[in-house]
Amino acid sequence: MELAQARKARIAPRPGGRVLADALVANGIDHVFAVPGESYLDVLDGLYAVRERLKLVTCRFEAGAVDMAEAYGKLTGRPAAAMVTRGPGACHGAIGVHIARQDSTPLLLFVGQIPFAETDRESFQEIDYRAMFGPIAKWVTQIDDAKRIPEIVAHAVDVATRGRPGPVVIALSEEMQRDSVAVPDIGPAPVTRPFPDPAALAKLRDLLGQARKPLAILGGSCWSEAARAAVRDFLLGQDIPVAVSFRRQQLYDMTLANFVGDLGVGCDPALVAKVREADLILAFGTRLSEAVTQGYTLFDLAGATPIVHVYPEAEEIGRVFRPALGIVADLNVFAASLGDLAPVAPRWGEWRAELRALREAASAIAPYRGKLNLSEILHELQTLLPAEAILTGDAGNFATWVARFLNFADAQRFIGPTNGAMGYGVPAAIAAKIVFPERLVVGFVGDGGFLMTGQEIATAFHHGVAPIILVFNNQMYGTIRMHQEKFFPGRVSGTTLTNPDFAKFIEAFGGHGETVTTTAEFAPAFRRAVASGRPAVIELVQDPEQITPRATIAELRALRPAPPGSVAAKRKPPARVLPKHGKTR
Fold first, then answer.
1. Cβ(175)–Cβ(116) under 8 Å?
2. Spatial distance between the Cα atoms of 455 and 458, rounded to a whole number of angstroms
3. CB–CB of 151/186 below 8 Å?
4. Looking at residue 365, what is its pLDDT?
5. E runs forming strands in 345-400
6. Is pTM, for the whole model, over 0.85?
7. Which CATH class name applies to 12-181?
8. Separation CA 348–CA 333 (nearest Å)
9. Element (H, E) at 116
10. CATH of the domain spanning 198-361, picked from 3.40.50.1220, 2.170.270.10, 3.30.70.1070, 3.20.20.70
């Protein structure tokens, strides 16, 4: 009791802004990505006081700032903080919260708020953030009493990181930040992670022993290096074919003989067909979402295909597909437990070989016509990347080329938005380079996505880091145009783009810019970009006709049936159909 009283006596009063900064440090937050605002000036001053222990990254747009914090969480498994001002700032940052929610990424978003005394008067930029962010955040709260800052920040970190990771939003009333209070800092609590039931692990082994065509699907977030290695050793040792869920390529070494592809938007139709033949699904960490399960059609909802679903949150297991076995466990603890399972004699070598052959065929260089062959360029890039390169992706049709033709090795990392948010790739690449300045970082983005957050390249210059951005330029919103051609062929509406000279864009900042129009130009341009030591943009000028890796615009139009009774309907149908296995003329 005396010790506690003596400790309390030593606590000096601090303004709320400083208390918040100290609370972040106490809970292991070492990066804040922010666009400054007058609604949290006192917090900015608090961050100045801890600048030796916490890096403040000044961004140019709130969407970019929150995307950077989300990318930090994906790459480290730990939450970063983003800070935005009230009203418009919060609205701009909302997309990053949605990414973190659907991608299961730990994240803290702090939003400056109006003075508490003005609540419900529609004060300048007033928004009820509990109502606004409630559907897309794990927890939303507001701090009106500075004494509660340490408690709420510590709990926010707990919520963001435990169970299924996700975003927490904290509004900061303006006057609270100036209140002087004497409170202790509160750090993280040592909490044991949920372990898998030993009986459940034995059941998993029994199910595997009965299988002839098993398939593992890896997904989720916050896998540690040790956990990835443990899962790899188990699946490789048992010769189990492995697919990764949508944009989760960093979870498994794609060069291994049991890697068979990705399941998501634009994946190999031949793989999807084979997955329907599987007699056991090992779903480790994935939610079995709409993208992974091809619109919830890949498996029978009632459980005709046995599924072992391992997930850190019980509410997600059986949410759509009823599993043969559900295991609630921390993914990293579960991975370590796999080493204790006695091996099962594999009886599916031929099955695994069939699936692997599909992957090798799908990822082989395709004979695309034209001067620039993206499949060849991505194969070339694979040879140019160092062992620990980090790659970030945006949303758009270009991303299907990356998923198909790049095989990421064990120490390489790839992150992208599983919720399909455009504008993610550039901020994510900048965040990756800030957090891991010694590693080569390459960002992939389409021409549409680049002009949504490409201005964040200024943040790279400001903080002295040099990512390389590859802009896939086909002069259109490619994904929407693809669907347009499927359902309204030839009726192009709203999807054509007018673009700047992307090389000159980066050169205006003092960076390195190149425009690549032929396959042969790419490798030398990439080497020059690396050697420049500056932020770089390489524009890849695509043939707009080759709209996807598996179809041209003409082929998509040919698939659409003509209206009954029309002249076109009476014509003989074209002999060529959309290829199933990735070959195009």
1. yes
2. 6
3. yes
4. 93
5. 390-393
6. yes
7. alpha beta
8. 27
9. none
10. 3.40.50.1220
* Of 414, 374, 393, the residue nearest 519 (C-alpha): 374
Bridge partners of 83, per DSSP, are: 34, 110
Q: Helix (H, G, I), strand (E, B), or coil: what is residue 255?
A: coil
pLDDT digits (tens, 9 = 90+) for 412-444: 999 999 888 999 999 999 999 999 999 999 999
Which pLDDT score is estimated for 3?
40
Average pLDDT on 278-306 reads 94
What is the residue type of 113? Q
> What pLDDT is recorded for position 62?
97
Beta carbons of 519 and 377 less than 8 angstroms apart: yes
Least confident of 27-36, 201-210, 334-343, 570-579: 570-579
Q: What are phi and psi of 4, to 5 degrees?
A: -65, -40
**Res 561: pLDDT:** 63
Q: How many CB atoms lie within 10 A of CB 87?
A: 19
Same fold: 12-181 with 365-570: yes
Give the H/E segment covering residue 229: helix 225-237
Secondary structure tally for the chain: helices H, strands E: 22, 20
Exposed / middle / buried, residue 190 (Cβ in 10 Å: 0-12, 13-18, 19+): exposed
Q: Angle at which helices 349-363 and 398-405 pack, to 10 degrees?
A: 130
**Distance in angstroms (rounded) separating the CA atoms of residues 426 and 434:** 12
Mean pLDDT computed over 99-103: 96
* 365-570 classified as CATH 3.30.70.1150: no
For 563, the token pair is: 């209206």
Query: What pLDDT is attached to residue 183?
Result: 96
- Six token digits for residue 180: 């002087």
252: amino acid identity, one letter: Y
% of the chain at pLDDT higher than 70: 93
Confidence of residue 567 (pLDDT cuts 50, 70, 90): very low
Cα angle for residues 221, 358, 284 (degrees, 5° grid): 25
Apex 136 CA angle, 130 and 137, nearest 5? 65
Contact (Cβ atoms closer than 8 angstroms) between residue 554 and residue 579 = no
Alpha carbons 512 and 544: distance in angstroms, whole number: 25
Exposure pattern of 46-65 as b/e (b: 16+ CB <10 Å)? bbebbeeebebbebbbbbbb
Provide, for the chain, the percentages of residues in helix, strand and coil under a 3-state DSSP scheme, each rounded to the nearest 5.
40, 15, 40
Q: Which two tokens stand for residue 123?
A: 């004060």
Q: Which of 252-261, 380-389, 481-490 has the lowest mean pLDDT?
A: 481-490
Q: How many CB atoms lie within 10 A of CB 188?
A: 12
Structural tokens at position 400: 């299907």
Residue 12 identity (one-letter amino acid): A
Element (H, E) at 140: strand 139-143
What is the residue extent of each domain of the chain? 12-181, 198-361, 365-570
The average pLDDT across 343-351 equals 93
User: Residue 583's pLDDT is what?
Assistant: 34
pLDDT of residue 8: 55
Tokens representing residue 458 in the block: 């200024």
The model's pLDDT over 157-207, given as tens digits with 9 standing for 90+, comes to 999 999 999 999 999 998 999 999 999 999 999 888 889 999 999 999 999
340 C-beta neighbours (distance < 10 Å), count: 8
